[in-house]
Protein 1
Amino acid sequence: MEDDVPAGGQDDFQRDPDAPPVALELIRADNPGPMTLQGTNTYVLRDGEESWVVDPGPLDAQHLAAIIRACGSRPVGVLVTHRHADHTDGAGTLRRQLQNRTGCEVALWAADTRAVAGARKPPASLISEAGVVGHVIHLPGHTADSLGLLVDGGRMLTGDTLLGDGSSTVISPPDGSLTEHMQSLAILRALAIDGRISSLHPGHGSPATDPLEAIDAIEAMIAHREERIAQVKEARAAGALSMDRLLRAVYGEGLDPALRGAAEDSLRAVLDHIARTR
């Protein structure tokens, strides 16, 4: 897989000028929770009779059945945006069921091929008979293997690099890196300001459905991360050196015990970022 962001705006999407736009359908898994929000967002891309699945989600029979119905008769590939189980657990089963149902050979792609049995590295672009469907972009930070997919028309599938509804993704070192995450957010910001992102479609939460909303969401997350970095620096300067004292200084006394582990991971990511960038 090539890590470079595609150069040049919508001209990168060389397609049959008479072909209709790539269709994008969201199918949300029934696995809500503190880390998954309303559930994992699975996306089905349709270009004519061909289809691709991004993030199959959990191994849930009803969810997989809904994906299969949306794929139609010519599934081409299954792409996972990163290694976490809420995005990958259904991948192998979905691939087998699609192949058995349609007789088509279905590719399975993951940047970390160890995370998904039978997966291979993704191509730089997804290609249909009509031309380019989407460009695969490396967006590390949430995990080292995190990917996004910039789909025909400027629709950006972000995986867990950027969540919806103002939620912030958890970064758990050493696999996750706030330094790399900030760089990935800068890439998304540059693409959005350049007019190459028309909407954001996250791995969890609601989409940002127009260009201005997309820019606002990216800018808000960058500002949130910068504010958290400043909070940690200020707390450490005031003598909060232990994790318990940092948690109280940054999150207050009312932190939900169910979120403590994620909060500790996020603070470790901030401390690692400060050490790397001082």
Protein 2
Amino acid sequence: MTFPLDDLRRWPDVEAPGLVAVDAADRLILDESAAARTGLPAGRLVVVGDAYGALALGAASGGARGIRVHQDALTGERALHANAERLGLADAVASLPLDAALAQGAQVVLLRLPRALDALRDIAGLIAAHAAPEVVVYAGGRLKHMTVAMNDVLGAHFTRVDVSHARQKSRVLIARGPVAGRDPAPARESHGDLVVCAYGGAFAGAAVDIGTRFLLDHLPATVPSDGTVVDLACGTGVIATTLALRHPSLRIVACDQSAAAVASARATTEANGVGDRVEVLRDDMLGTQADGSAAFIALNPPFHSGAAVHEGIAPRMFADAARALRPGGELWVVWNSALRYRPALERIVGPTRQIARNAKFTITASTRR
């Protein structure tokens, strides 16, 4: 029986018409790597960047076991394990951080190419440093998201990079001969008194994106200290770190579902001397926060689910913020003015007032009913 790739689900990530759990690039990576995976000893296959489990579970259905998997998004990781449980393959896969233990002794690596070149550098360097000398990396993606620069990044860490034929607007780069291995290390930039650290794949890198910068300029002068203060979708931890620097008595929770963001935010808080007052968590929205526990939440919401733009992401975050806020607590949001989030904030959270607006962004504060 053919493995039911089309039965895979995205849950707990956004599920909607047009948003898929598996695509042509996943299928091409599996096909190109099939011979290399045949007879592979247990524990020698590594999968990186698997969106919802298609690569790992496709390989497991062919007999692979002891598959080590790293996914940046927590929702993707949870989807992988939900799909594995449903298909009776839960014992075939294990999720690991992007560190030496993930790549150690790997002979075959299946990789969905990340869109950020810095993320690819971190992954390629890690594999080259810790995989077996005979490792073969099958790195694939959709043609519209691939660039020649990806070949160059792989070429810096492998002696040979071959290119597959394109199929259904997808292609695979096949890398062999690991060289110049290195463990990931964060980039570091100073922005006035603030030091920002970023691992590859963190949104905006070690810069401060313009939406976040606008919010920093308009954060309230006083922030409640008698309830949890949260930097939701914290990215590199710029907002949480700034709040901690401005309010030395404040303790803050910074959370993001991205493993790269969480590692970056921890590095940023440590670099600015506030790591003891900012708890950085990998979380799906505010899943670890109790109902009615937060006094103040700051949010610069993402609008991508993987590579797809989807308008339902921010309202889900607004709803979870409303759940976590205590009555009278405030959600401060910066958003692209064209997205017109204010009616949703009024409906989901409560009375909403405009704090600031410029040519591109709007900042609002919504008070929990």
Protein 3
Amino acid sequence: MLFSKNLISWYLENKRDLPWRSTGDPYRIWLSEIILQQTRVAQGTPYYYKFIEAFPTVFDLAEASEEEVLKLWQGLGYYSRARNLQTAAQFVVEDLDGKFPDNYKDLIKLKGVGEYTASAIASICFKEPVAVVDGNVYRVLSRIFGIDTPINSTEGQKQFKEKANRLLDRKNPADFNQGLMEFGALHCTPRRPLCDNCPFSSECVAFNRIQIAYLPVKLKKQKVRKRHFNYLVFISEENKTILQQRKGKGIWQGLYEFPLVETYSEATAENLVQEEAYGYYSVPSSSKVDLFNIEPVVHKLSHQHIFTKFWIVNCEELPQQGISFTEAGKLPVPVLIEKFIDTFDF
């Protein structure tokens, strides 16, 4: 109880003035939590404002097209979050008459809502005593209580969840949960934590045993996959180009990109034209094909690094239906494509 009391006291004195903290509206809290999944507050806040402006209610979000949502999400990455966001909004509107579930058990049933997000919404909006556990919480608890179980193991996730629930202030779960996350974000940071001015330094196992740099423990990540993308940027005499929508369950599902030829290694002009995918696009033999960037653009995702070359294909007519450059700029595209479009300046 002393831990939770000290934590909440620290939070009330040090919390940041964030837009979603001025409301108890579950729609806005849910929106902020989805945006902030795997996204820093500084990066996510402008997106929160954009979504609230475009979709002030869950009804507005539910009625929007997928392309509108993806375009607004562009640049945040992990686009499945955006698709799940809209799916959940449609469920809330169509099946729940626009009212969000008021408890953890039903919140976690929403598409894209996991244990952390359901706990956050349930505790902040409905005062349900369920603890949140995220990266910040893992770090704070592992250091203060000296827990060295890997945080990305099944055993570790269970242990930290149980610990957080035991510490939880059941009368004030909202401030406790937000305080624990905020303490990890501002005070007990991954590097250079403020140990000399910490309300828990006297009891912190990591501080007293000089183990700050070693906690929390995390199992090694899986091997990063390297991929080589070659985009064919068609440009016709009518100033039109080709963009195609990505299908399937891979990265960037639902976003648009130029015709893609993926190779096993970095491509040259000579071996590019020999690829089966290159032939699939029926590039006119009279076309002039020039490499735009000599050095591949490296785009890093969590488990794969994409090495990209853009090949400019000037031709009289496009081999398939195209769109104007103006229309191309309106479609949702991966940030990799967006940066190229900005640089190339059609």
Protein 4
Amino acid sequence: MTIAITGASGQLGRLVIERLRAKVPASDIVALVRTSSKAADLGVQVREADYTRPDTLDKALAGVDTLLMISGSEVGQRVAQHRNVIEAAKKAGVKRVVYTSLLHAESSTLGLAPEHVETEALLKSSGLSITLLRNGWYTENYTASVGPAVANGALIGSAGQGKIASAARADYADAAVIALTTAGHEGKTYELAGDSAYTLAELAAEISRQTGKDIPYKDLPVADYTAALVAAGVPAPWPEALPLLDAEAAKGALFDDSRVLSKLIGRPTTSLKDSVAAALKAA
């Protein structure tokens, strides 16, 4: 069985391939990327696949049995891009598509949700066998701020007391590998999130505990957080997007307590303690 992964040179894609190689022969894995040179170190077959160029997708999916379609990163263009992949998969005779969607996509208030809902609808009407992995927030989205928080003496955000049930990318990668390589996932939708939820104040407390420094959490109005991100040189669209995401997190948009992810992967999800330790080591 040939398994292909879109976005294979990205952070999630690389982890999936690394873990897949421990389960299936490297010769059965195809990395689909826009720029082949970025995937030369993956140790598997690499094919050019550009979401915006259907001709590359037709060639890239030839002979593929199962496709992991990692959602595109270009917000606002993803539905059209995903449609191209789905149509190419149908032409190529792909038997099943596993898609990385968004936690509680249908009811989510996050601005990212509509494109995922539309993509899910396209998949459901495609006639393909599908599996939906509705991924919650990546812990790395917040621990990326650990270094700056230590440097500046505070963690800032706009999430209030909202509980964030995030999981590490590695946890979601393991879920994808399970869905790709084991039976019984056809037609299933999985709501995936971390075992334990935390507030940003609790994240700041964990940073403080591990560094021995007082790193408080400062909750800011959305406009002030946006201005701080702009002043820090954070590239667009994140100075606008991150505070709005935090504002929804404050209302519970990133919370889930079902523990479906840990049940699927057969182990607890990565703890906040371990994620902070990894971020401090990398900082």
